Amino acid sequence: MAAISRNIAIVLAIVLLIVGLAIGYGVGSIAVKPTTITVTTTIPGAPTTVTVPTTITVPTTVTVTATPKVEKKWTVYFIPHAGPADPFWACQMRAAEAAASLIAEIDLKFVAPERYGIKEQIELIEAAIAKKPDFLIVTVSDPEAMDPVLRKAIEKGIPVLAVNIEDYRPEEERIPYLGYVGMDERISGEVLAKEALKRFKEIVGRLPKRAVVGIHQPGLICLEMRTDGILKVCKEMGIPCDRLDITMDPTKAMEILKSYLAKHPDTELIFTLGPCGSHPAIKLIKEEGLVGKVYHGCIDLSPKILEAIKEGITLCAISQQPAAQAFYSVIAAYLYLKYGILPPMKIPTGPTVVDKANLEIILKQIETTGGA
Amino acid sequence: MLRTLGLLYRPEIGAIVGAFLVTCAFSSITDAFLTVDNFITVLTISAELGVVVIGVAFLMISGEFNLSVGALFALAPLTVIALTNQGLDMTLSFIIAILLSALIGYICAVITLKTRIPSFITTLGVMFAIRGILLMVTEGFPLKYRGPPHYLMLTLGGKTPLGFRVSIIWFIILLVIFTIILELTPYGNHVFAVGRDVRVAEALGINAKRIKTINFVLSGILAGLGGCLTLDRLKMVDPLLGTGLELEAIAASVVGGCSLFGGYGSIIGAAIGAIIIAMVRCGLVLVGISAFWYTAFIGGILVIASLINKYVGDWILKRR
Prior knowledge:
The complex is a heterodimer.
Chain A (H helix, E strand, L loop, with lengths): L1 H28 L5 E5 L14 E5 L15 E6 L7 H15 L4 E5 L7 H13 L4 E4 L4 H13 L4 E4 L15 E5 L1 H20 L5 E6 L5 H17 L3 E5 L4 H14 L3 E6 L2 H13 L7 E5 L3 H9 L2 E6 L2 H18 L6 E5 L1 E3 L4 H11 L3
Parallel strand pairs in A: 3-4, 3-5, 5-6, 6-7, 7-13, 8-9, 8-10, 10-11, 11-12
Antiparallel strand pairs in A: 1-2, 12-14
Helix pairs in contact in A: 2-10, 3-4, 5-6, 7-8
Chain B lengths: L1 H7 L4 H17 L6 H26 L7 H17 L4 H26 L3 H20 L4 E2 L6 H7 L8 H19 L1 H11 L1 H6 L4 H21 L2 H4 L1 E2 L7 H11 L11 H21 L5 H27 L1
Antiparallel strand pairs in B: 1-2
């Protein structure tokens, strides 16, 4: 008996859920139809009875027009692969919101996984697509994994803009998004190498005898691209340059670089590709008393790197200006939606070269946006 | 009347009311919530989580926790991709991955039951160990599947012509199977009995250790399977996949009416709990509330659900 009642209870509960969904759907989709009222009036005392048919259409939707006129808001979703728990994305979020606050028509929704997660990012994009936003700004954190969801968005007519990480695959495989806002990784390595070698020559009077590139995450496509660029320029200039796996561990990185310098004492220039590799390189040059003998050049900034630029250890650093990436992409969305301006295939925010000469303005950027 | 109310008080009632309220709340704020697109997204997310939740809830009813499910959710698909990329057949790789998940569930059971250390601690340790090994082996990089689409990936989580993923069908099948096992078989009765009071259960001749070991292994297998359901959708596994999933699974089970002390709960309730979690995730995005609120929302729902389960349950039991 109890088992039967329990089963009845389950059935009742499921029915309740279905009814709930139906009611919810009903509430969401009830369309209010305009009402037509016919009034028949009889005027007493008149020679004839006149019937005046009056049709009054009562509008049920009242639009209040305020001054100045409030224009349609465009919903723009900004969905990167990590959230403001990461300082890099905190800076982007702040800049995106700053841009959106300048434009009344844009309703910016910055959503991101709580921590780095491609699966979560894809799920957020899937959820956002259901809302059919007017514009979608995303990082292509993994081209293969993101391919289906972004193609789905594009098929549904949602304009997509890539920010910070683009689809690096060959052109025929690439996701057909509108454009990309960020640093061009294909040239950032070349720019770093050229600029560092130029400064080295200015200081020492000749090119370095040997150089080395420390890569802290071999296999990561953007780092590999940076390395290729550096190696290409060094080869063109006839400078022997090796590629060294220095790992993410700063202690190990220092040891690996140290043994390389011991084996190749003619090394005069160390390239690193991010703070993970730059910090150990700077420390090594300082600790081993190599300041003025071995120089350093790198990509991406941190307070320690800025300090090293001031001290003359780091010749120059390449910045991708994260705040600019977020700001430009929101503006690009607005221009597209408001005026039909297509963003160019690439809106570069870097490579920008940071050295002693422009240190002050970069410090301002860090102070106002939280990153550079 | 009160007797009827008492019978009506099934563990899943709270979850059903919760799902109803969450649906009403989100659909009254945004039209996009009750759309086919969102429905499919919610079901896809809840299917992958839900398969894990079924195992976690089953184990929880027998009075134990498994916090290593999040790590197994990454380990199994990672094993499949790693072995397949090495040239092994994907079906064989899949079997190995599931066996590995089962083995880890078994190890958790042995450590917990032999040493009587709370499963909360042993499985926490196992979770950290697996996660550490995954990070070490992959050096933090996502592992990509390099081959052509394989029938196994499509069978596990491929897209159907109707737009939804096969993983949803797996979720429903497993939900039915485990509900039948729990509600209608002697094994299910034993699970409840062991969760309520191990000593009483043993006095009745039930082998409590065997029941718990089987449930640990099942939770391991289902966690591994849940991870493999993502294979076709993502075509890669990053070593951090499923981080925090163990807590979402426990939250879903509790929202679904499972007692944290064992002996009480329902698989249907836990599955609805998983759907609520997926609804909150998607609903927040649609409403445009920053997704950082997600964790806070889940926390709030968990606390409210626990309170409802405790007080309503106590109230009804007192009046029986």
